[in-house]
Amino acid sequence: MRWHEITIHTTEEAIEPISNFLHELGAGGVAIEESGTLRKERDTSLGQWYELPLNDIPEGRAVIQAYFPEETDIEQLVGTLKQSIGRLPELGFDTTGTTTEARIVDDEDWADAWKRYYKPVRISEKLTVKPTWERYEAREGEQVIELDPGMAFGTGTHATTVLCLRALERVVRGGEDVIDVGTGSGILAIAAAKLGARHVLALDLDPVAVSSAHENARLNGLETRITVLQSDLLKAIRDSEAEAADGFAGGVAQDAGTKLPGGSSPTIPVQIPVQIVVANILAEILLKFVDDVREALEPGGYYIASGIIASKEAEVAAALEKARFTIEEVSREQDWVAIVARKR
Questions:
Q1: pLDDT at 87 over 80
Q2: Contacts with 71 (C-beta within 8 Å, 6 or more apart), sequence order
Q3: 21-50: pLDDT as tens digits
Q4: What is the mean pLDDT of the chain?
Q5: Which residues of 126-152 are buried (b: 16+ CB within 10 A; e: fewer)?
Q6: Sign, CA torsion 124/127/131/137
Q7: Distance between first and last Cα of the chain
Q8: For the CA atoms of 156, 158, 160, 164, what is the dihedral angle to 10 degrees?
Q9: In terms of Cα–Cα distance, which of 304, 227, 233, 221 is closest to 270?
Q10: Which is it for strands 199-204 and 177-181: parallel, antiparallel or unpaired?
C-alpha cells in the first residue's frame, strides 16, 4: 500500500496542536522528532542519562510526519491543515518558519521506522516508561509503565506528560479514586494505578484512544483497576448521578445485588466526587471545563492540569482561582506548564 506522507517543519511549541489537527484529519500515523542536540536543556535532577539519537534539527524546532491513505484528496487536506496552523498564533503558539510538504511513500518506508527512537526513559524517582518491545530490568521501588503507543500517540516523554507523571507521583498516596480526562494512550491512568490509586476512570472522546488505553491497561495487568470510557467529564458525572438515582447510591446495584466500593457502579466504578482529577489537554479546552472538574472533585481534592503553553498560564490560573481552587504548585518544562490545584 502507498501513502501520502506530510512533513511539517515547525517549533517544538507547536507540536501538540499540529499533531491534534493531523489526528482530526484522519492520519494513519503521526511521528515526531525533536532536536537531538546535546545543547538541549534536560532534567538531570535524578542523575538521568540521555542517550538520544543526534540529528540536525535546530534547537527548539521539530519535524512532524503524518501518513494518509493514497486515495486521500491531499491538496484539500493540506489546505485545511495550513488554515488550522495559521490560526495557532492567535492562541498563543509560536509557528515561526513552519513549512508543509507532501510526497508518496510505500508501507515499508515508515511503518516501524519510528520504533528505533523509542527507548526506556526514567521519568521520575519511581516511574519509568518503556516500550513493550524493549527489555528492561526494573530497580527496587521502580514502577515500569509498559506502553505500546502505536503510531497514533506519543511515547510518554513529551514535556506535558512528564510534568503530569511527576505531579501524580507527588500527589497519589494510595487508595484514591482518580479521573484521567483525555487519556490518549492511557499512560497517566496507568501511572496513577501503579502509584497506588484504588481505581482510575480514563475518559476520551476518540475511539482510537479508548482502544489504545484499554490495550495498554491490559499490557500492564491493570484492566481490573482502570476503566476506559468514550466520554467527556461532564457526561461521566451525569451518568454517575443518573445511576445513583436508579438505585446504585450507597454502592449497591439493586437489580443485581452487586456491592461495589463507596457509591460506585458497574459503569462508573469510581465514587464521584473523587480525590484526584488529571487532564493533559490544551489550555483552551481546560478553560472550558473548570467547573466540571470542581463538581467531580471532593473538597480538598487535587486537580493536575497540564498541556498549558507558557503564554496561557496566567489565564488558566485565574480561571482556577475564580472557580475556588487553591494553586499549590506550578511546574515548568521547556515552554509548557502544569498546575496542581486543590478544591477549596
A1: yes
A2: none
A3: 998 888 866 777 777 544 455 444 433 333
A4: 83
A5: bbbbbbeeeeeeeeeeebbbbbebebb
A6: positive
A7: 56
A8: 30
A9: 227
A10: parallel
Contact residues for 147 (Cβ-Cβ < 8 A; gap 6+):
129, 130, 131, 132, 155, 156, 185, 187, 190, 216, 219
The size of the chain, in residues, is 344
Q: What is the pLDDT of residue 282?
A: 86
CA 123/CA 120 separation, integer angstroms: 9
pLDDT of 256 reads 32
Cell of 117: 527512537
In terms of Cα–Cα distance, which of 89, 21, 100, 98 is closest to 60? 98
**Residue 203: band (very low, low, confident or very high) from pLDDT cuts 50, 70, 90:** very high
Could you tell me the pTM of the whole model? Answer: 0.69
Query: Which amino acid appears at position 118 of this protein?
Result: Y
Strands of the sheet with 99-106, listed across from one edge: 29-34, 61-69, 2-11, 99-106
Q: How far apart are CA 102 and CA 27, in angstroms?
A: 13
Judge whether 183 and 214 are in contact, CB under 8 Å. Answer: no
Residue with cell 508518496: 104
The pair phi, psi for residue 187, each rounded to 5°, is -60, -40
Tell me how far apart the alpha carbons of residues 105 and 70 are, in angstroms, rounded to a whole number.
9
Smallest CA-to-CA distance from 186 within 228, 232, 224, 143 is with 228
Rounded to whole angstroms, the Cα distance separating 77 from 24 reads 11
Grid coordinates standing for 86?
A: 495559521
